[in-house]
Design brief:
Strand content: 15-25%
Distance between the termini: 29 Å
Number of strands: 6
Largest sheet: 3 strands, antiparallel
Shape: elongated
Radius of gyration: 22 Å
Structural class: alpha+beta
Strand order of the largest sheet: 1-6-3
Length: 216
């Protein structure tokens, strides 16, 4: 998997700006970050964690779930030998606090199994030490970054004379084409993710507020 520096190199090649005449490394880093956020909205990582309750409380901290985007299912009390798993009603009091809507107060030492989504990471971006995107997703994120860069450059050239030989209108069209390609790519990923989720019978769709949902 590629590092942030390698993805920046790819973006520079795509933009024909290896000397950073038009976009600085800091700007390209910001565009890659923005494109990654867009990608995570359509195809986040689906993760699972087993959390031990440290206090006799219906409130459970989610601070131990790295990169949490959305909590999707809760099994409590969790025991690997129990089938079917118990799925209590629940709600979120805040972004990092789960509230179990159960009659009997939980006990310290009990376990909950939490299903959630989290964002992909890129090695070297925002302190991450690993890239979780596959090659296809990396390419889409680079495309998105160059689309944002092209849009910024095109907007900056309005009512100016460029040295590239391109008119401001041509630059606008170039930027629009890249952005359209990026959005089409995201839509294709979104559709694929939905199809994959349809076959994942153990996952259940929920809102962030309510723990009772239908199958994705």
């Amino acid at each position: 998997m590629s590092t942030l520096a390698e993805l920046i190199d790819l973006a520079e090649l795509d933009l024909r700006d290896t000397g950073n005449a038009n976009w600085s490394i800091e700007e390209l880093t910001a565009y890659i970050q923005r494109a990654l956020r867009s990608y995570n909205q359509v195809d986040p990582i689906r993760a699972v964690a087993e959390v031990e309750l440290v206090a006799a409380s219906r409130e459970v901290s989610l601070a131990t779930l790295p990169g949490l985007m959305q909590l999707t299912d809760v099994w409590y009390p969790y025991d690997a030998d129990t089938y079917p798993p118990k799925r209590p009603r629940w709600e979120l009091l805040s972004e990092d606090t789960l509230y179990l809507l159960v009659e009997d107060a939980p006990r310290a030492g009990q376990w909950a199994r939490l299903f959630y989504t989290r964002g992909h990471t890129i090695d070297g971006l925002d302190g991450a030490d690993a890239t979780t995107l596959d090659g296809s997703a990396e390419g889409l994120v680079v495309l998105g970054a160059t689309a944002y860069a092209a849009l910024q450059y095109a907007q900056a050239t309005i009512n100016t004379v460029t040295v590239s030989g391109w008119t401001p209108r041509q630059l606008q069209e170039w930027a629009a084409e890249r952005m359209a390609s990026f959005r089409e790519g995201l839509e294709a990923v979104r559709r694929r993710a939905i199809l994959e989720a349809d076959a994942r019978v153990s996952w259940r769709a929920t809102t962030r507020q309510e723990g009772q949902g239908g199958t994705v």
